[in-house]
Amino acid sequence: MSKITNIQGTFTLHNGVEMPYLGLGVYLSKDGQEVTNAVKWALDAGYRHVDTASIYNNEEGVGAGIRASSVPREEVFLVSKVWNSDQGYDSALKAFDASLERLGTDYLDLYLIHWPVKGKYKETWKALERLYAEKRIRSIGVSNFMQHHLEDLLNEAEVVPMVNQMEFHPYLVQQSLIDYCRVKGIQYEAWSPMMQGHIFKDPAFQRLAGKYNKTIAQIVLRWDLQKGVITIPKSAKKERILSNADLFDFELSPEDMEYLDKLDKGQRFGPDPDNFDF
């Protein structure tokens, strides 16, 4: 596994593309000034990876933030996702074009299927494979796909997904899914690494934060990276965006990594990929 060295460090996807292992998530960041500022602050602070989605309704603001920053577009790893109501072959192609237009760019670095919509995701994947073949996306992947969804997809896929973005935190490790993805060459990525704020209530995290003289968020994000999991903490506050990236002057011991792994209780704070209705 690559060494965790700095804010612009990367993990290499199975197609050779370098994906920065720390990114800015913009879920629930309001379109307009709020998300534009967040993206600009992050990029100016050294982040090189921004993760949005069409359903977040803030792609325009994300694009504006990239243009307002001091960083050229080709140095930014830009991710978006196709929403459930746009799944299917033709509709996914249209949704991709619409996302590009809102973002004000002519390509994406990674495009994900947002949820495994039954009866739709295979056709959607064919659309992503086509966009990938046309070099309009540098890498393609999925989000919220359990092992059985991946197995089903891989029965017919020509391209193995480069990434699987999952709810991931110490209460929901899903180690067997991480292991399966590793065997298949699929990079694991975390959404909701802070358990929607619940990490700040658990004394276990407070104890480790004290031990390493770091914030609770920094402890959990460092755990993500040391597990080889890409992570995209969300914040619209400048000081939090900077603090979330201050992960490279310490390392969690093997004992503390194991301790965090053992907090796993299979607990979700977001929807269940096997049982969602949107």
Can you walk through the features of this model?
- The chain is α/β, with parallel strands linked by helices and 278 residues long.
- It has a single domain, classed as TIM Barrel, CATH 3.20.20.100.
- It is 37% helix and 13% strand.
- The protein is built from ten helices and ten strands.
- The strands form two sheets. It has an eight-stranded parallel beta sheet.
- Helix 1 crosses helix 2 (59-68), helix 3 (89-103) packs across helix 4 and helix 7 crosses helix 8.
- The radius of gyration is 18 Å and the shape is globular.
- The mean pLDDT is 97.
Supply database-style keywords:
278 residues, alpha/beta, two-stranded antiparallel sheet, globular, NAD(P)_OxRdtase_dom_sf
CATH architecture: Alpha-Beta Barrel
Helix and strand run: EEEHEHEHEHEHEHEHHEHH
Secondary structure class reads: alpha/beta
> Strand portion, in percent?
5-15%
- How can the largest sheet be summarized? 8 strands, parallel
Q: What is the assigned CATH homologous superfamily?
A: NADP-dependent oxidoreductase domain
CATH class: Alpha Beta
CATH fold-level assignment: TIM Barrel
Contiguous low-pLDDT stretches (5 residues minimum) are none
Number of domains: 1
Radius of gyration: 18 Å
**General shape:** globular
Mind sketching the topology for me?
Elements: E1 10-12, E2 18-20, E3 24-25, H1 33-44, E4 49-51, H2 59-68, E5 77-82, H3 89-103, E6 110-113, H4 121-133, E7 140-143, H5 147-154, E8 163-167, H6 175-184, E9 187-191, H7 203-212, H8 216-226, E10 230-231, H9 238-244, H10 254-261
Parallel strand pairs: 3-4, 4-5, 5-6, 6-7, 7-8, 8-9, 9-10
Antiparallel strand pairs: 1-2
Helix pairs in contact: 1-2, 2-3, 3-4, 7-8
